[in-house]
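Entry for the shared binder. Reason: the reviewer on the internal report wants the predicted structure included alongside the sequence.
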Amino acid sequence: MALGCIILYTLRFFRHQIRNKFGHQVEAFFVILTATQFHFLFYCTRPLPNILALGLVNLAYGYWFRGRFYAALNSLIFTTTVFRCDMLLLLCPIGLQLLLTKKVSVWGALKHCTGMALFCIGLTILVDSIMWKRLLWPEFEVFWFNSVLNKSSEWGTHAFHWYFTSALPRSLLAAFPLSLFGLFVDRRVRSFTFPVLAFILLYSKLPHKELRFIISSVPIFNLSASIASNRIYNNKKKMVWNLLFLILLGLLLMSLAGTVTSFMASYWNYPSGHALKKLHGIGFHNDTDERWVHIDTFSAMNGISRFCESDFPWRQVVEALIMLLKYVICFLKSSMRYSKEEQISLQEFQQRNFTFLINEHPVINGFKCLFIEDGFSRVRLKPGFPPIFLVKEPKVYAHGNLENQNLFSQNWPGCP
């Protein structure tokens, strides 16, 4: 929540600069388009280096629009050296454009930005070396691994055009076609959009691709789309533009529908978290025997975090301070213990002392399936309203050890 508030605050700063430069209507369309994009807002609360970088990139965009060009460059330098080295691919096109348009000079850039670069490098080496207990500049190691050794492809590869044909259409939704239209209707937006397009083109050379790598480009594309939407809205009484206005309304409704669908799919995309919550809800608050819960890799990736590892009834506590104190006491006295040990074969579970398994496998020798948790599988079209149906399938299975007969006195839902 703290990270999300920080990102939204920096986005608010950028929005104010849009209002000052392009007017209130463009600002309003920027808000509407951003609010109907699921992926951008979803990523805003994820503690990833790309999202930490996004906050500073939003500040850089705001300074850029405000005419504080050296402040914009310094924000990008801090982002590049501390959070994400790949922001160098955004820093270079923006810096080159500012040099070519004579908004900054080479000497001025050296004078204003060298000190910031040295300070940021020193800061990140100091802090991270203490944390990792060895001399370390993390983003240099990331740069060396991804760019020099070119080993990022070990995590998967996509085609050169993937950002333009998959990632951007999914993240921008209605803003994707509108942003292209905005490049034609207003020359001012081109000077802001072309460096970002260059950033994505340069990034496309890297075989391993993920949406989060280019998430910082979304605000600029939303700006271009907002300018196009504003032009269509202001000319909607003209015949051809009236048709474009109807298309605009249709695109916004489609974006809203896509965002609602993605939200519901995301809600059902954490089956193991629901499974552990159900396991806590069924039993053993008054049982002092120690019970071990094993969580396999699939389950650990689909909704279970350390925050889930407690059977404490949060809803019964009113005051926040008392809630925190009781939670700590309960956690220390909890009869539940958790294991995320990897590479255990299905045959080995029978020789281990696990009481429960939260697992992706429906049948495990020596254990009985207690209940199933469904998760999102795919979207299916259907007649009627709403025309979209979310298909859920069994994803996670909770098993109980057959040697512990006390388990089966509980009222388990069972498995079909």
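Summary line for the report: The radius of gyration is 26 Å.
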